[in-house]
Amino acid sequence: MTQLHPEIAAVTDRVIERSKERRAAYRDLMTQQREGGTSRRGLGCANLAHAYAGTDEQRDAMKPANRMNIGIVTAYNDMLSAHAPYYRYPEQMKIWALEAGATAQVAGGVPAMCDGVTQGYSGMELSLFSRDTIALSTTVALSHNTFEGAALLGICDKIVPGLLMGALRFGHLPMILIPAGPMRTGIANKEKARVRELYAEGKASREELLESEIAAYHGKGTCTFYGTANSNQMMMEAMGLHVPGASFINPGTKLRQELTKAAVQRLPQIGWDGDDYRPIGEVVDERAIVNAAIVLLATGGSTNHLIHLPAIARAAGILIDWEDFDRLSRSVPLLARVYPNGSADVNGFEDAGGPTFVIRELLKAGILHGDTLTTFGDGLAAYGRKPVLENDALAWSDHGEASGDDSIVRTIDAPFSPEGGFRILSGNLGRACIKVSAVERDRWTIEAPCRVFHTQQAVQDAFKAGELDRDVVVVVRFQGPRANGMPELHKLTPPLGVLQNRGFRVALVTDGRMSGASGKVPAAIHLSPEALGGGPIGKLRDGDIVRVCAETGELAALVDPVEWEARDLAAAPPPDLGSGRELFAMMRHGASEAEAGGSAMLAAAGL
Fold it and tell me: Would you say which domain of life the source belongs to (predicted)?
């Protein structure tokens, strides 16, 4: 076995040491739940009758105590393209479970909102907290204690983290995540971006923009850019929570069906009655969390996971922070360029080698923990092989030595960059993070007068009025978890991109989030402490010179220290009402800082 890279080992040791007490308490709780907690075998007959009453075809099969009952937690809805394929999954999964000597029931559903629909509008302020809601819904689904394993059906931005956060509180159960795959490729991403920027400049009509967007997002499956949803899938592969290679196989294909069947029939094999027990609470350990961070960096994945991965980790008693990401980034090479960090979409990525190629290459160099417990195979090496059909049966094949397209994915000895493209920024404005994998090196440092806003719309209005046609650091504050639920500021990408294309030196500084689709404009995001929590971003005034430097890790207002100390914080705008935002007030008020996961639920539980 290849020796582990020393910096990967050092960061992992740091995570293990920091997590020692919490992880031990978590494992003790999981042991208690398996050995002394409520289970189907211990339920009363009336309780069991209620659990069996909704099924006819499986009732007799569910009675034996030595047979696994699989709980299906599904994010199905047909408004969301990524989750629409799940419609028929439970019916098929029940058949495949019976073939494997098990049974299956839909334990519950979880909400699955689409950031693509809500971007820039009021519903987006529920987006981050939908993750906590999904975690709670998963917990409710599994709380009946009538399951010996679970299948988690979910893909997109907050859905996978939420499913895991809930599922890990039942960490004594074996579980597998089941994706449904990306939609097939529509118009070229470059063309989509071109039309968006034309519309931002008033050079394309709404009708032209709509036709372009529909040509891009045109069918069932995940959106094809490498944003948060598809970064989820990459991380699940590296954590060993998928059937190997399941991420980017299109819906409606025979291979997709066989991968789902394999997931269902694997669960009884790793249950606690056998000699190959693989509970999710042991699969998701410190090494698996570090592996997830590594592949995120190696593929230029979504910045949203700088919030989501710490939250997932905390649900398993593990503490990872942005310094860990920063240190890993300096040792992890960038092996993939997928839109918005390149021209290809995830279908092109898959054709060129995909997640399994990246994992194989990183393992070769000792940049991943290969000896982790995974749901399939003997360690992570199984996730470095590509799924194929041989005589209509699922099999796995080895990759060739070369990439299928080295403009999309590269081998470990010829990376796009020796580093992963993530940096921590800090200074008198607080602590933020920046993704630079798609930012030209000559724009890693921006120093310019700032213009301060409190809403995305105000930025767009100023852009349309020509007020930003200059070197500028756009500051958007009161966008943190406590202020308004930390919506993504994705609608700022086209106007800021236009300003940069015009030759201006432009950056964004915000205590909010940027989309997983963010790219070429330098953006200091997740700034903590946030404005509503007394963060110094509240001291900024129009015209202050702000320095954003990914080279040195500096984020600072270049204001006389005496004047800076004397300044008052800006008053917070009143919370907006409508679209149910008022019902999430308790989550906003109790939310942790971004680096701790931005979760009210975890904060209240002391996790």
Answer: Bacteria
- Pairwise CA distance, residues 197 & 369, whole Å: 42
CA distance 223 to 289: 25
Q: What's the helix, strand, coil split of the chain in %, to 5?
A: 45, 15, 40
Contact between 538 and 564 (Cβ < 8 Å)? no
Cα dihedral across residues 123, 127, 129, 131: positive or negative: positive
In terms of C-beta distances under 8 Å and separation of at least 24 residues, what long-range contacts does 136-139 make, across chains too? 136/166, 136/601, 137/108, 137/109, 137/110, 137/111, 137/162, 137/166, 138/73, 138/108, 138/110, 138/162, 138/163, 138/165, 138/166, 138/167, 139/166, 139/169, 139/170
| Position 517 pLDDT exceeds 60 | no
Binding site membership: which residues? 156, 223
Task: Report whether the peptide linkage leading into residue 279 is cis, meaning its omega lies within 30 degrees of zero.
Answer: no
Q: Which residues pair with 393 in a beta bridge?
A: 390
H helices within 432-472, ranges in order?
A: 456-464
Buried b (16+ CB within 10 A) or exposed e, 354-387: bbbbbbbbbbebbbbbbebbbbbeebbbbbbbbb
The two tokens of residue 345 are 């979409």
Query: Which one-letter amino acid corresponds to residue 93?
Result: M
Confirm if 387 and 396 have CB atoms less than 8 A apart. Answer: yes
Residue ranges of the annotated binding site for [4Fe-4S] cluster are: 156, 223
Collect all residues with Cβ–Cβ distance below 8 Å to 281 and sequence separation of at least 6: 26, 27, 30, 168, 171, 172, 316
Give residue 393's identity as a one-letter amino acid code.
A
What residue spans define the domains of the chain?
6-184+219-397, 422-573
At the fourth CATH level, the homologous superfamily of domain 422-573 is IlvD/EDD C-terminal domain-like (3.50.30.80)
% of the chain residues with pLDDT over 70: 99
